[in-house]
Amino acid sequence: MLHIAKSSDRDKFYDLWQICFGDSDAFCDWFFQNRFAPDYSVYLEIENTFVACMQAYPYHIWIRNHVVSGAMMCGVCTHPNHRKKGYMGQVFPYDMNLLRKKEIAVAVHTPAVLNSYFSFGHFPVADACYLTVSNIPLLQQEVQAFLLSEEQWENAYPCYQSFAMAYSGMVARSKQDFLRKCADYAADGGKCMALEKDHIVAYVWYYPTETQIQCVEAVGPDDSVKMVLQAIMAQYPQFSLSAKLPPKTKITFPFAQKEVKQKGVMGLVNFPLLLKQLDLQSDIAFLVTDDVVSENNGCFLLNGNKSQSKPAFSIPAGRLMQVLVGYVTLEEQRDYVEIYDKVGFETLNQLLPKQNCFIIDEY
Fold first, then answer.
1. For the segment 95-122, what is each residue's pLDDT rounded down to a tens digit?
2. How far apart are CA 51 and CA 250, in angstroms?
3. Which residues of the chain does CATH 3.40.630.30 include?
4. Which of 24, 91, 94, 126 would bridge with 357, disulfide CB 3.0–4.6 Å?
5. What pLDDT, on a 0 to 100 scale, did the predictor assign at position 140?
6. Which CATH architecture has domain 129-262?
7. CA-CA distance, 194 to 211, in Å (whole number)?
8. Model pTM above 0.85
9. Distances (CA, A) of 234 to 145, 189, 237, 239, 337
10. Is 228 helix (H, G, I), strand (E, B) or coil?
11. What's 280-351's CATH class?
């Protein structure tokens, strides 16, 4: 049977997370103390066995310079002994409909395998650039970057705010959300290096191991972030480094490689609510089809209201989500669109231009 989680189910979720993902006790202890939101999470139980689950945590998301009610999905997993039985096909729509009732407009997540949820209409909405250095040369540290202490984390919050507002798809973190995320990184051994010029202008959260450095959150203008990365590398000669950066970053080093990959998917949960929150206006109707959330089906206007007018085109909900975020244009979705009115289609295409899309958070 499918169930909405209760606080008393925490240990079941915890145990299945460790079985499926193998994260450290320190991380899991912190995560399930601070990020387990039972009201937004579901599980499937077969013959008194906890076989599959999905968690979500409510956030606000920046989309086209508007704050949208969203949820970050995580811990989507099935016990190894019960895979390939179609169980996630039951869990996924159950949770999407639960989130809709919670007045969540969109669901964001980072699947281990990107195409895992394409069949549910959750498609890529952001890219990331991965900068890698396989063997850091000896560097002369010229930048006076410094490690942030826990008491200094809040000083980096304005830097995150200004950075996040430049992208569509980023979490619109409150200061409390920001400090919780910092504690999240620190719980598993993360460190934060920052650059200050009267105020913090850039910071990088990173994990050092015996031979590698993994930079998971790099925030600030390219030139300042590059200085922070140089300061980190100066401390770890002969290590390898990987840094997740925005897709259009200009940061480079003579000894580094860069690769842009799709990273992060998003799905429509409550389509009328999303349109109202985006505050879009047009009298052109269009038809949406959604196989997961039935209430998202129908003929709509951009203000979120249902319409009796003849639609200019029809489009699957997941493909429209990519357009609304700004990852692609309507024109670029022609392969998935049936057009009935070319003028109306082109008018909405002009109203929904591309945006700079990027997502840092993965849970």
1. 999 999 999 999 999 888 889 899 999 9
2. 45
3. 2-109, 129-262
4. 126
5. 59
6. 3-Layer(aba) Sandwich (3.40)
7. 22
8. yes
9. 11, 19, 6, 10, 51
10. helix
11. alpha beta
Please report the sign of the dihedral spanned by the C-alpha atoms of residue 210, residue 212, residue 216, residue 220.
positive
The pLDDT value recorded for residue 235 is 87
Enumerate residues 6+ apart whose C-beta is below 8 A from 290. Answer: 121, 268, 271, 296, 297, 316, 317
Please enumerate, as own/partner, the contacts of 200-207 that have beta carbons within 8 Å and a separation of 24 or more: 200/155, 200/156, 200/158, 200/159, 201/159, 202/159, 202/227, 202/228, 203/148, 203/156, 203/159, 203/228, 204/228, 204/229, 204/232, 204/243, 206/232, 206/243
- Which residues, given as ranges, of the chain have pLDDT below 50? none
Q: Which residues contact residue 305 at a Cβ distance below 8 angstroms, ignoring those fewer than 6 apart?
A: 272
- The residue behind tokens 């006790």 is 25
Mapping DSSP to helix (H, G, I), strand (E, B) and coil, where does residue 231 land?
A: helix
Entry field: residues in the chain: 363
Position 313 scores a pLDDT of 98
Residue 9 in tokens:
């189910």
Architecture of domain 2-109: 3-Layer(aba) Sandwich (3.40)
Q: How far apart are CA 282 and CA 231, in angstroms?
A: 50
Exposed, middle or buried by CB within 10 Å (0-12, 13-18, 19+), for 199?
exposed
- Can you list the positions of beta strands (E) in the chain? 2-4, 42-46, 49-63, 66-78, 106-109, 123-124, 127-133, 146-147, 191-196, 200-208, 212-219, 240-245, 257-262, 265-268, 286-289, 298-300, 313-316, 338-339
Judge whether 107 and 227 are in contact, CB under 8 Å: no
Buried b (16+ CB within 10 A) or exposed e, 257-273: eeeeeebbbbbbbbbbb
